[in-house]
Amino acid sequence: MAEAAALGSAARGTTAPNPNVGCVIVSADGKVIGRGATAPGGRPHAEAVALKQAGKRARGATVYVTLEPCAHQSERGPACSDLLARAKPARVVIALKDLDPRTAGKGIKRLRAEGIEVKLGAGRAAAAESLSGYLARLNLGRPRITLKLALSIDGKIALPSGESQWITGEDARRHVHLERSRSDMILVGRGTYLADKPRLDVRLPGLEERSPRRALLTRGEAVDGWETLHSPEDVYRLHDVNDLLVEGGSATATAFLSADLVDRILIYRAPIIVGEGKSSFGYVGLDAIADAHGRWRSAGEQGLGVDRLEVYERVRDA
Predict the structure, then answer these.
(1) Pick from 244, 210, 245, 240: which is nearest to 17 by CA?
(2) CA distance 96 to 68
(3) Dihedral angle over CA of 182, 192, 150, 199, nearest 10
(4) CB 61 within 8 A of CB 26
(5) Which of 79, 143, 216, 316 is the most exposed place for a label (fewest CB within 10 A)?
(6) Would the pLDDT of 194 be above 90?
(7) How far is the C-alpha of 270 from the C-alpha of 304, rounded, in Å?
(8) CA 276 from chain center: how many Å?
(9) How far is CA 219 from CA 27, 146, 232, 256, in A?
(10) How many angstroms separate the CA atoms of 18 and 242, rounded?
């Protein structure tokens, strides 16, 4: 299941609004005979890819899949639960039940009706992380929102003049491009757009085609080639976006944090002190230090050359 989750994670940013599922098929003698992830654009699904590799060897095998196989018919392809029913594996191990009402237990029921053993819940945590954008959209009605910031040791994003290129080094910037490749859409504010004219593309060898759609947070006129959000709450109309990356400056970061719409923060911290300069955030609606505690948890950190990445996740009620 860990391998299935890794395959699904690699497809993030390419499958929306479909989930980025991963699937691995193992023969009765323990050999991997099929691997698959949801293809760019959402079809074929991971199970279809893996079953095509396995062929007739799938009969009697064990299928590991990060999300319940779909049960609804589509003009773009057959239901995966039907494909599995025809392939007749001995067992299907599913990490997460699908919340999509078109499937929601129907895929599991279909498999069991064919006499296929179904095990649910194995590798749940890794699969949930892999599918976090899709799950956020179904649970919250909006994409999973990641806020990215490049900061100095003292929490500044720019000099008083506004100069901010480059606070972090090349390794950190490459990691940002990797995060972009895993996102369906990337957003900045009008101020960042006017000051920097950012390309917001992916400039990593082999991943150039993974550049996300570009969005602008502005109350002003639309810009050619950019989608427009007039307020952070407009994320609720992004029904075809699973993962949204917010890269805009202090005003945009503050707007999304004030609206409590940020699920994850990536802080790329450089070993420099700016002193007087532009702060990362403005007022985010807190009037007491006690109210700030318990809202965020550390989700890891790593070195990126001379810089350091800190990851924080929003703590929300289940």
Answers:
(1) 240
(2) 6
(3) 40
(4) yes
(5) 316
(6) no
(7) 10
(8) 35
(9) 57, 22, 11, 15
(10) 8
Catalytic residue flag (residue 47): yes
Nearest to 107 by CA among 137, 133, 73: 73
Residue 47 confidence class, pLDDT cut points 50, 70, 90: very high
Instruction: Provide φ and ψ at 119, rounded to 5°.
Output: -115, 130
Given 47, 68, 179, 247, which residue is catalytic? 47
Strand 32-37 versus strand 243-246 pairing type: unpaired
Of 236, 45, 233, nearest to 139 (Cα)? 236
Please, which contacts does 160-163 make with residues 24 or more away whose CB atoms are closer than 8 Å?
A: 160/276, 160/277, 160/278, 162/195, 162/278
What type of residue sits at position 316?
R
pLDDT at 293: 79
Query: Residue 114 and residue 63: Cα distance in Å, rounded?
Result: 15
Q: Which 3-state string (H, E, C) describes the chain?
A: CHHHHHHHHHCCCCCCCCCCCEEEEECCCCCEEEEEECCCCCCCCHHHHHHHHHHHHHCCCEEEEEECCCCCCECCECCHHHHHHHHCCCEEEEEECCCCCCCCCHHHHHHHHCCCEEEECCCHHHHHHHCHHHHHHHHHCCCEEEEEEEECCCCEEECCCCCCCCCCCHHHHHHHHHHHHCCCEEEEEHHHHHHHCCCCCCCCCCCHHHCCEEEEECCCCCCCCCEEECCHHHHHHCCCCCEEEECCCHHHHHHHHHCCCCCEEEEEECCCCCCCCEECCCCCCCCCHHHHCCCEEEEEEEEECCEEEEEEEECCCC
Quick one: tokens of 36? 């698959």
- As a whole number of angstroms, the distance between CA 14 and CA 158 comes to 32
Residue 38: count of CB within 10 angstroms of its CB = 29
d(CA 92, CA 68): 9
pLDDT interval class at 200 (50, 70, 90): confident
Backbone angles phi, psi at 176, to 5 degrees: -60, -40
* CB atoms inside a 10 Å sphere around CB 87: 24
Read off the pTM. Answer: 0.88
